[in-house]
Amino acid sequence: QVQLVESGGGPVQAGGSLSLPCVAYVYSFCTYYLSWYRQGPGKEREFVSAIGSDGNTRYADSVKGRFTISHDNAKNTLYLQMNSLKPEDTAMYYCKSESCQRWGQGTQVIVST
Predict the structure, then answer these.
(1) pLDDT interval class at 2 (50, 70, 90)
(2) Cβ(34)–Cβ(97) below 8 Å
(3) Computed over its alpha carbons, how large is the radius of gyration of the chain?
(4) Nearest alpha carbon to residue 105 among 52, 50, 57, 39
(5) Which residue in 8, 62, 72, 99 could disulfide with 32, CB within 3.0 to 4.6 Å?
């Protein structure tokens, strides 16, 4: 069964940090290209960051320099380290296997002033 499970969300004050893990219960080829997306209140889902099996990464301009994506192959876990959080980062965060077109259920991040 192909499944992605996010966790680590919660309330945080502006300027704070959170780390979101996403455990991938998937076939190995499903981890070739993994991404994070988010959907804020009243907004469309948007791309946040992605990482390939070669280690190459991409970031949305809005999070560049503040967020870091990584993947632990041994633990089959994708991470999103979020620093210097802003209220506009408030959203449901989803991990996605681009290779297998599968989404996790999401984890909520709320950044307060």
Answers:
(1) confident
(2) yes
(3) 13
(4) 39
(5) 99
Are 83 and 92 in contact by the 8 Å Cβ rule? The answer is: no
77: pLDDT strictly greater than 90: yes
Q: Which residue is listed with tokens 């919660």? A: 10
Average pLDDT taken over every residue of the chain: 95
Distance CA 10, CA 18 (A): 8
- In the block, tokens 């681009």 appear at 98
Q: What is the DSSP string of 54-113?
A: T--EEE-TTTTTTEEEEEETTTTEEEEEE-S--GGG-EEEEEEETTTTEE---EEEEEE-
d(CA 6, CA 15): 22
Give the angle 17-72-94 at the CA atoms, nearest 5°: 55
Enter the tokens of residue 12: 């945080």
